[in-house]
Amino acid sequence: MGSHVEKAIELLCANYVFPDKAATAAQRIQQRLAEGAYDGMSEAELAESLTAELFEVCADRHLRVRVRSAELQAGGVTEEAALAAWREYLRSTNYRIARVERLDGNVGYLDLRGVPSSADGGRAIAAAMELVSQTEALIIDLRKNRGGAADGVIFWCSYFFPDDETHLNSIYFAATKQTRQYWSLAWVPGERYLDKPVYVLTSDMTFSAGEELCYNLQAQKRAVLIGETTRGGAHPTDSFPLSDTLEITVPTARSINPVTGTNWEGVGVKPDIEVPSEEAFLIAYQTALDHIVETSQSASIREEAQLTRSGLV
User: Fold this and answer.
1) Is the pTM here over 0.90, yes or no?
2) What digits encode the pLDDT tens for the residues 144-157?
């Protein structure tokens, strides 16, 4: 296992977005290697041990060693086939849009389990937003969202801002030492969702791009977050093989929010209304209905919202 550990150290120091932390972690792991701490470990045990030691120094949830999926192990699929399989997975799971609904009282509801790239999922995202475009409040459920693509986050977010004048995020890339800015898009398919309240549901399992989606909206004061503090993974990551069956994932970039000047790495995104995640939907729905009862221009919608709100008590 010594060669695997040495390669992990090499890849960490060559690619990690925080070189000082990489050097500290590498020194500690090198010392443990010399002491024989990894002797006799299986690959799964080594992966678990190295991941724990890396987290102890770096507190980075995207930095980990893991056993590679069976498809990527020796004799498995090519990179092109793996990409095709991933796109088929996205297609068969409706591009991670698990549910789109108009709830009673004219409240929109989106259950998003991941964030596809705009190239892959743009049509599905646009269709989902079209189906909720005439609602008067929107609930976005990210409690089971495990992440995805940064450009997909920007595509989703752009529906909630009027033009291309909102700086949503920046990403610093260690390899080039350049920072790329991400702004709301000048054009999106269909109607934007403007001047109406948005409530985002979070849990302690909301992760990565799912966290960026709620962080961006919260920082711009465009949504109210309800639920639990999220898991805390903000750094874009690349995977590198250590062997045919083992790999290390190394954050090679970091997010920088233009409003906060930082990101959610290690600390998560703290909701505006902190409640157990299983209670978040009901609170959001009640709040949305209250808003509609007070503001809707339609007497029939106000009545529908009032009756629905009474039924929730």
Assistant:
1) yes
2) 999 999 999 999 99
